[in-house]
């Protein structure tokens, strides 16, 4: 088969790779029908995730058709159309039993495209299939479903739930890439008073308004007076970091009110300063998190019922064998306007 293979920092190749097979009785093998690229894949290519070794097939977001199942798999069978979660869960370890699937200690967690071969390929092995794949309703398209593999659960769990967004809150989200936009959409489910979007690109602020941000901060403008005006002069109840740079994290800590919450979502490859000399007396809560995907069934039900629409997130479409071009487009959003790109089997 063909697959997107990591060749070391900055190197990727659409190349021949061994066909996957069931290894453990809890595995399934899927034919990949629709797949996308995550910002984390770019972090891997940038050298920010040293655990990923050259030769690894990248990717952790896919929709596919089951072609082979292990003997212990109970919930799906060959021919089923499924969402493959970015997180694999054994269901038995201490963390999985509490719903913290991202911290699985029995070979799960974030392993696809990280510690084992991923899904940017013609076929993929999915471990722990009973908790890591989800049969799809007929009225949910592959393109929309693939956005529930990672970005929507990440925004919902690591941003909105960790940040404890409540009705009437002033919510600030720094970074309007796909995760930031999904965070706008997810925050709106909780009826905040304001959702303020901050980004350096006007095109992404336009997208933020489309997804429900009622206030945006123009590139180059100081966000502090905007946040203070919207919040009655106290600062934001919840600030979400959705970039993954020291500068964006440090900005978030200056926008939050006393007894507020900073929810870090971004993937960080460099140290960020934590100014405890300013924060210690303000009762600020800071959370971090790798998504657990424990809310994927809930989000899938809401998507099927039309409670939110992710389709506008997709800006570019390619055939699966055009994935090298898709990476070029996705990695240059300032020039291409890319939000989320999808590749589909032809």
Number of helices: 13
Largest sheet: 7 strands, mixed
Structural class: alpha/beta
Sheet-strand content, in percent, reads 15-25%
Query: What's the order of the H and E elements?
Result: EEEHEEHEHEHHEHEHEHEHEHEHEHHE
**Helical content band:** 25-40%
Task: Report the C-alpha radius of gyration, rounded.
Answer: 20 Å
Give the CA-CA distance, first to last residue.
14 Å
- How many beta-strand runs? 15
- Shape category: globular
| Low-pLDDT segments | none
Rounded mean pLDDT is: 96
What would your notes on this structure say?
The protein is 27% helix and 24% strand. The chain is built from 13 helices and 15 strands. The protein has helices at 39-45, 94-97, 129-132, 142-145, 151-161, 178-188, 202-211, 223-230, 246-255, 276-279, 296-304, 323-330, 333-336, and strands at 2-8, 11-16, 28-36, 62-69, 81-84, 123-126, 133-135, 170-174, 194-198, 215-217, 236-241, 256-264, 285-287, 314-319, 340-344. The strands form three sheets. Strands 3, 4, 5, 6, 7, 14 and 15 form a seven-stranded mixed sheet that branches. Strands 10-9-8-11-12-13 form a six-stranded parallel sheet, sandwiched between helices. Helix 5 (151-161) crosses helix 6. The chain is globular and about 60 Å long. The two termini are 14 Å apart. The mean pLDDT is 96.
């Amino acid at each position: 088969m063909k697959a997107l293979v990591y060749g070391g920092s900055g190197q990727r190749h659409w190349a021949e790779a061994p066909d996957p097979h069931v290894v453990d009785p809890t595995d399934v093998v899927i034919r990949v029908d629709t797949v996308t690229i995550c910002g984390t894949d770019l972090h891997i290519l940038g050298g920010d995730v040293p655990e990923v070794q050259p030769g690894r097939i990248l990717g952790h977001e896919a929709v596919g058709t089951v072609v082979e199942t292990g003997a212990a798999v109970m919930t799906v069978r060959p021919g089923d159309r499924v969402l493959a979660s970015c997180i694999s869960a054994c269901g038995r370890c201490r963390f999985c039993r509490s719903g913290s699937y991202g911290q699985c200690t029995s070979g799960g967690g974030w392993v696809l495209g990280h510690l084992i071969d991923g899904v940017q390929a013609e076929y993929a092995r999915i471990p722990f299939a009973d908790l890591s794949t989800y049969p799809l309703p007929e009225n949910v398209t592959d393109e929309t479903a693939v956005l529930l593999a990672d970005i929507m659960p990440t925004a919902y769990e690591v941003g909105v739930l960790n940040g404890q967004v409540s009705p009437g809150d002033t919510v600030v989200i720094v970074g309007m890439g796909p995760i930031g936009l999904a965070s706008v959409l997810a925050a709106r489910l909780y009826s905040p008073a304001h959702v303020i979007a901050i980004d350096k690109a006007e095109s992404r602020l336009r997208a933020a308004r489309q997804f429900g941000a009622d206030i945006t901060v123009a590139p180059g403008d100081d966000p502090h007076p905007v946040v203070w005006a919207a919040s009655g002069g106290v600062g934001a109840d919840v600030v979400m970091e959705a970039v993954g740079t020291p500068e964006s994290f440090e900005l978030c800590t200056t926008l939050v009110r006393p007894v507020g919450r900073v929810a870090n979502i971004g993937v960080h490859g460099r140290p960020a300063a934590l100014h405890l000399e300013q924060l210690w007396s303000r009762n600020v809560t800071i959370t971090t998190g790798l998504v657990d995907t424990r809310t994927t069934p809930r989000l899938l039900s809401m998507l099927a019922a039309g409670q939110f629409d992710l389709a506008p997130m997709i800006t570019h479409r390619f055939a699966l064998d055009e994935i090298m071009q898709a990476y070029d487009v996705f990695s240059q959003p300032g020039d291409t306007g890319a939000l989320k790109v999808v590749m589909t089997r032809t």
